What we know:
Elements: H1 3-11, H2 14-25, H3 29-41, H4 49-65, E1 68-81, E2 85-91, E3 95-97, E4 99-101, E5 113-120, H5 123-129, E6 137-140, H6 147-155, H7 157-163, E7 168-172, E8 198-201, H8 203-214, E9 220-225, E10 228-242, E11 247-257, H9 267-286, E12 293-300, H10 308-316, E13 324-329, E14 336-343, H11 346-356, E15 366-369, H12 377-383, E16 387-393, H13 396-399, H14 412-431
Parallel strand pairs: 5-6, 6-7, 7-8, 11-12, 11-13, 13-16, 14-15
Antiparallel strand pairs: 1-10, 2-3, 2-9, 4-8, 5-9, 10-12, 14-16
Bound molecules: zinc ion.
Zinc ion is lined by residues 257, 269-270, 303, 331.
Amino acid sequence: MGTRAQSDWIDAYRGPADRLIGESLSTRFAWERLAELTDTFGHRLSGSDALEAAIRWAEAEMKKDGLENVRLEPVKVPHWVRGQESAEIVAPRRHAIAMLGLGNSVGTPAAGIEADVLSLRSFQELDAAGSRVKGRIVLFNVPFTTYGETVPYRASGPSRAAVLGAVAMLVRSVGPPGLRTPHTGALSYAEGSPRIPAAAIATEDADRLQRLIDRGVAVRVRLRMEARMLPDADSFNVVGEIRGRETPGEIVALGGHFDSWDVGTGALDDGGGCVVTWEAARLMKKLNLRPRRTVRVVLWTNEENGLRGGFAYRDRHRQELANHVLMLESDSGVFRPTGFGFSGSEAARGRVRSIAALLRGIEAHDIGPGGGGADIGPSVEAGGIPAMSLQVDGNYFLYHHTPADTVDKIDPRDMSRAAAAIAVMTYVVADMPQRLR
Ligand SMILES: [Zn+2]
């Protein structure tokens, strides 16, 4: 196809794109919906009544929007509960520590666990500490660089410390310094190693412990946690569609994860991602834009402490994964959208670039490397499906997994811009004459 023909192809979409953008920018619908979700139900931890009530609400709202084939697809999810918890320095003097237990952690005995703190800056230092780890509370005091680099201390630190005899683990919060805000998140116990309680502490508290220890002070800490795992609970992925007018068996799937941690209200992570992708379909419906292929919105359950929703989607839809034309996830917060990350063939990237040019007016036309997301990951991998993620400009990890993850951090105009960008991208991919390959 020559350059001229390529531009002809995309020209047909300027009108619909401008209508989608215009409609989205003219309302605060998406932000108001997210505010209603998070104000009404609050956090949505897997296994909680709040998550299940929010799922029923989303199902009813999708029907009100006029989406088709609205349904709940069952998923069994882990049911971890936090309970009461605290940490304090008990010697040389008593001071409370700002903390949050890590998801999936075991609890402590009722009286708590009290021990001297051993502060370490890396797994290499842990291994070098050897027998000094036994009987201690290990603190991994590793400053945040990127999520990928720092999160292993939260996820696998507890088991690595336990193998050497640590009695509990603390981790410097995986996030930049905030306002003494601890960040929770999942840990993952290694098979066969002892399970010790683990919690994140605010960066300020990690720094204070470090300064005390650096002065040669023996610091004792007591950790109390009621955390426990209950039997798996019933949950659902929420699905709604705009059926394709010509080839409904071909699917463009988009969404976010509807569950959250049990602190804050899961507005950025990932209520916002759910609402902006859902909004893209609502905008199409509102403007009577029915694409050739099916647009399917999925609000996945249980990303945070299990990824069961993503796996359940892959297993339930295994037969039609080959007919998934594109999967898109928004799970990096909703801030000013700059475009999309994309993973797929070079030919597909060229197509996606042409579509993105329709978003120049809202400056969301960049196509970066690496599209994907935790929830679409299992399906994308199993089906070799082109994958996309919303790219945004914002300080996501300042709020991530903290009590500060609330709707007021989100600018309603950013939500409208993000919904517009996603609507244009997914509508054109779902409608263009040739399948994205
Ligand atoms: Zn998330």
